[in-house]
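Re: your question about ATP-binding cassette domain-containing protein

S., sorry for the slow reply, the queue was backed up all week. Below is exactly what I fed in.
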Amino acid sequence: MRRYSESPPATASKPASSRSDFSTLRTLLPYLWVYKWRVALALSCLVGAKLANVGVPVVMKKLIDSLTISPSHPQALLVLPLGALVVYGVLRVSTTVFTELREFLFARVTQRAVRTIALQVFRHLHALSLRFHLNRQTGGMTRDIERGTRAVGSLISYTLFNILPTLVEITLVLGYLVTHYDIWFSVITFVALVSYITFTILITNWRTHFRRTMNEMDSKANTKAIDSLINYETVKYFGNEEYEAKRYDEGLQSYESAAVKSQTSLSLLNTGQSMIIAVAVTLILWRATVGVIDGKMTLGDLVLVNSFMIQLYIPLNFLGVIYREIKQSLADMEKLFSLLDQNREIADAADAKPLLTHGAEVRFKHVDFSYDPNRQILFDVDFTIAPGTTTAVVGHSGSGKSTLSRLLFRFYEVNAGGITIDGQDLRALTQDSVRHAIGIVPQDTVLFNDTIEYNIAYGKPGATHDEIVAVARAASIHDFIDSLPDGYKTMVGERGLKLSGGEKQRVAIARTLLKNPAVLIFDEATSALDSKAEQAIQAQLKEISRTRTTMVIAHRLSTVADAQQIIVLDHGRIVERGTHQSLLAANGLYTQMWERQQAKADEEEVLN
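Result:
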């Protein structure tokens, strides 16, 4: 058998460091490169659209110049303008056709990239450790994912449909001005472009931290709101509605402050951009007017230069907005991709094999474990659950009982020792096969906000209705479900709050039965129920565990008195083990716990 050395203490995943814009773009590119031929065709259409767009003012110049030809050649007025008009119309149509064809080709690329990234993040979050999910803030994280996936589409749209076309058009216009006119036209245009872009980038970069602050405050406010609404009953119990509103408003105030700063700084940016464009257009028209007066340029040239500047002015006017949106999208995507940067604390070995059960013997071999290096939870825990038998683990709160189930599910790695099922070390097996072989009925059953049928079927997705009914009967909940107006289609509400504790537990039992696991875990499954409901469910638990390897984690000792083996944990160490009778005879910790619980039960009976 493979030997495992002692592994270092598990530590929480470190938060991902701040990503640069370049690293964010580098992460995005592979998702687009999957459709490289579509991308290439779309870019070709982009260039075609801009060539046609730049060609329109050139044809307009020819048309105007032809109209100023000497009256001695009137036939030219009938032939050349007609040809120019046809070409003008074709170029106008071509601009639209190429633009729409580009959109058509790129639509699938954009949407598939958004879908692929969102799905990858979703799967990655499920692959992260329990430690990560215990530390997360659900409201803020879901808002980060929502903004990030939306930003993917926005970034692609702004970059490839706005920035790149604008750069292509600027290049074509500058090339035409250099080759056909006075160098000053190109110099003025180039200087204006450089000044505009530099000013936009500098001011936008300064404004970006306002956007980041807005995102953080938005996520924090959303986290507080969701947390408060999830705990609605607790808020009502303590009458803290106004307190929760103030906490929420603190986040909104911070968001408001950052939003105001962002909006006022936007005014500065817009004013500066407009001034640069106005000066440039004025200088260009001045040079063109002088050229016409000097006879070096025709009226067609004047119209051409003016048209070029108008064509550049419109996208340049939006270039600032687009650049801001790109920076915003990059800021939004940063947190999304940072989730992908989170390392999986528990990963399958490269040569991991599926679990093969033949009886399902479970063994904890000298297990040491700690959630935090400074506080060890389990010390040299060593016991075996024979196939088809029930072992109970009891002890005071905080003794490490529930930690055993988490280690068996491999939510965490042991620090020393090992855990085997039928002699196979969990670290040599695929996590999916291990978890498929284990079923659990937890103390706090959390149900999905869906139908009862959906929640039972969750134990075996794709199960037939007859299979669901069969396990519901076995869990003694079919008659209750059948009595409801909507039957199995009844919605259970958020976290199953429309059902009582006993009803939720029976749904959990049915769900676990449908999974049909080789190993069963009952983690204080009846501790939150009253005595009558506990007795009814306890009988069902004993029945379904009759032929399975079962570990019962319990606080009430009366529920495990008939277990084949009882393990007593105290501060993470096994201090006693044996049957109920042998442990009572030993007159140790188990006996003290038993007598204390019996005395409490007698008091409650007298009071009742």
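The radius of gyration is 36 Å. Residues 1-17 have pLDDT under 50 and may be disordered.

Happy to talk it through on Thursday.
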